[in-house]
Amino acid sequence: MGTQNTASPQKAAADGLDPHLRQVASGPAGGESGDLPDNIRRTTADAALALLGTGPGGLTDEEAAERQRRYGKNLIESARKRSPVLAFLSNFTHLMAILLWVAGAIAFVAGLPELGCAVWLVNIINGVFSFWQEHRASQATEALKKMLPAYANVIRGGREQKVLAEDLVPGDIMLLAEGDRISADARVIASSDLQVNQSTLNGESNPSRKTSDAVPEDGLTPAEIPNLVFAGTSVSEGNGRAVVLRIGMATEFGKIANLTQNMEEVRSPLQRDLDRLTKQVTVFAMCMGLAFFSLSLFVVHEPFAQSFIFALGMVVAFIPEGLLPTVTLSLAMAVQRMSRRNALVKKLDSVEALGSTSVICTDKTGTLTQNEMTVNHLWTASREYGVTGVGYAPEGRIESEGAAYRAVDDPDLELLLEGGLLCGNARLRAPEEEGRRYEVYGDPTEACLIVSAQKGGIDPAELERRMPRVKELPFESRRKRMTTVHALEEPVDGAMRVAFTKGAPNEVVRLADRVRVGGRVVPMTDGMRERIMAANDAYAADGLRVLAVAYRALGADAAGEGVPASLSAYTPDVIERHLTFVGLEAMMDPPRPEVAAAVAECRRAGIRIVMITGDYGLTAASIARRIGIVEGDDLSVISGFELSKMGDEELRAKLAGQVVFARMAPEQKLRVVSALQEMGEIVAVTGDGVNDAPALKKADIGVAMGVAGTDVAKEAADMILTDDNFASIVAAIEEGRAVYSNIRKFLLYILNSNAPEAVPNAVYLLSGGAVPLPLTTMQILTIDLGTDMLPALGLGTEPPEATVMDQPPRDPNERLLNRRVLVKAFLWYGLMGSAAAMVGYFLVNLLNGWPAVPLAGEGDPVYIQATTMTLAGIVFAQIGQVMNCRTERTSVFKIGLLSNRQIVVGIVFEVALIVFLTVFPPLQGVFHTVPLGWQDYVFLCCIPPVVIAIEEARKAWLRRRAARRRDGGSAR
């Protein structure tokens, strides 16, 4: 299948063609909704060919050309993209950016061109960085195209041809061989042990067996229909032929591409919150500016120009210019920490979105589980065994009642292990490098049977040498079993050949009239059948997959048993009867060992987990219970077919409780995610296949698997797990929560300096000018754009607090700038800073004779020294406040007063800046400063310890109150 860069719909002008063909070629490839003609899959292969206007010899070249003219090429279409220029400019025109442009302009008007340039430079750096992040993200459609093959083998005009995949048309006969990628949706018309890897569509690694038989069953999703194959999947084993049903955007693959590329971008919670914060700050700053302008003009009677400049300075003071750099830095630091915890973030905003997550929609295979099928129980009529060890490495043992067993210790166990190993086509390859996994070729279910035999001491190569395969009767979905025939070195029950059959227990037991018990063959009884099926049901109820193994000795001249001597005459009807039942092998994909702890941490953090898998419901429910996602018996297991019949209200009601979704189609997973978002949840979604791409893109945070994930899933996601481990998501959530906390710490720190900036000016205005202005406009801008910036940025690098996962997810309606932050900033921290500043101001004046001696005016040295002391008092108070802002309740001494190097550097910088502004003559005139004496510095150095001590006392009181509440709750 090829690609094209147009947004026009797939052509389907099928005038003059069979109406069935017209519907098949142009409609979507759905399942039970009626858009796929039932007679295509329900009828025989020959009838399907007739309905599609073709035959075993395929289309002629002329017919193929005519159909391509009518239906178009087999292409995945690309949606038109936004102009790169507009995308670039949008990063400089959002509300916060506009506010920073205005703040810079105000600095120019106030006579501070250097500070104006600095503010604008901050805006430019943030805009360029954001554009680069957008440019690298979300290339999902391009990745989709890379997955599709460039050529396809077809039969046209009665002969085999290789054609461009984009030239396939409905009615073409495709030849399918092991390793081929499939280029279009098609109906299988011939198969020989054909198995297709559909993990790109259903997320499950087990190959799906395909048949040419009619499929009359209802309630199947498209991927479950065994006589259909789909574009973007691949042939893992066997070969076959299939007639093309749908091409291009009409395929299942095309539907996913359409869902993914047309998905509306979801703004992260942080983006939405920053927009609200910007509006709040803008209104607040303008109101404060207007208030101070009015007071200056009408109360103090300052000239209009002077009042305007004064008001502009207050507006700039209340605009948090460092907010965007702090957000960026905080996100970037979290990204670095997350990368060390196996999580790679593609978009910075995704970090905070992950921290806000209230629901995780996770798949099962490879994320919660190890994606390595493992036999953990063996059952024979005389004994049940447990099998230790997980995965494909042959490490572990077989044991019963505390004793270890080898195959040679029990003839029934030996035959069970040998039959399971020989009756399969999978292969295992040992890792060549340390730390790598065993590689599986073929069906993972068959691979784990090899491993169980190895744990019992059986050498696969030696066994296959002693019992070479001479015939295979492949698995068929109708029979639900497969059989292999092997030659023997020594006769068994007088025969030189033996057939091993494995498959669904009920089918194998039905065909068995004998059973092995303690090394002897005895007749099968109804009671024994009940025992076997009871064991099977117990394993199945625990979410295990169970296979039964039986055998039959085949004599070369056993005409009396109806077995001919010729291998060519061996058919299922001839061989698969009079079986001797041997035992059961029960297996599962084991949970990752660290997942249970991660799930428990999610519960502690108030995060719900919803499993959405392509596996069977019973297996999914068992895993969910085993790792703690589900507690108690109140669980709804909903299949894809059941979901298709369910209304939105019913779905939301189910999502309010414990629920597991099984056998889900891509659009159904998307529907679940959308329903959760409509319920007000912040949703994280994990996935690895093409089928997951729409949901990954729709989610507030899409998480792709880095090891097993397809390129499509990785491109559609916001974050990639390098170890495919659910526990890494929980670690990333912890970092994400820290980001939001750090942004709020920054906001608290920046705002608490606004009060000591505003209070001195309010004293001046409300006194009618009787108290000379304690802080000039230039000094206000010095604090806001100079001394405060680096310590504030340092707050963005704080690691997560120890208690960050003890809190429930943040309410989506909660604001960064809420009442609690305002009260703490202005009425607690702000008043402490204001007190320090005003004490310093009045102290200088009192020590120099004021108010007894009137001031000479703004040029008076005492007045300039007093304003300098006010400025320095605010800065030294902020040194204590930056330490106070680092934690919510934890003592700052517990995390280390000097543990954040960025904050320490920021403090050193602001102290050095104050000293520089007061001793460097060219700057003294600009900022209205004079050098301070040693007595002044003694007073200033006392401010930070006092500020920290007061806040430490408050935090200690909060900790004691919380402890009393916990103790009271425990007592109750």
Q: How many β-strands, per DSSP? A: 30
| Helical residue percent band | 40-55%
Poorly predicted tracts of residues? 2-20, 25-37, 136-142, 556-560, 852-856
Q: Whole-number average pLDDT?
A: 82
List descriptors.
single chain; 972 residues; alpha+beta; Calcium-transporting ATPase, cytoplasmic transduction domain A; 5 domains; 11-stranded mixed β-sheet; 8-stranded mixed β-sheet; 30 strands; elongated; disordered N terminus
Description:
- The protein is α+β, with helices and mostly antiparallel strands and 972 residues long.
- It has 5 domains: 2-74 and 144-261, Calcium-transporting ATPase, cytoplasmic transduction domain A (Distorted Sandwich); 84-136; 272-337 and 734-800 and 814-971, Calcium-transporting ATPase, transmembrane domain (Up-down Bundle), CATH 1.20.1110; 338-369 and 592-732, HAD superfamily/HAD-like (Rossmann fold, 3-Layer(aba) Sandwich), CATH 3.40.50; 376-585, Calcium-transporting ATPase, cytoplasmic domain N, CATH 3.40.1110.10.
- 48% of the residues lie in helices and 17% in strands.
- Strand 14 (398-400) and strand 15 (403-405) form a beta hairpin.
- Helix 32 runs antiparallel to helix 33 (861-884).
- The longest helix is centred in the last third of the chain and has 38 residues, at 934-971.
- The two termini are 67 Å apart.
- The relative contact order is 0.09.
Short summary of the structure?
This protein is an alpha+beta fold and 972 residues long. Mean pLDDT is 82; it is low at 2-20, 25-37, 136-142, 556-560 and 852-856.
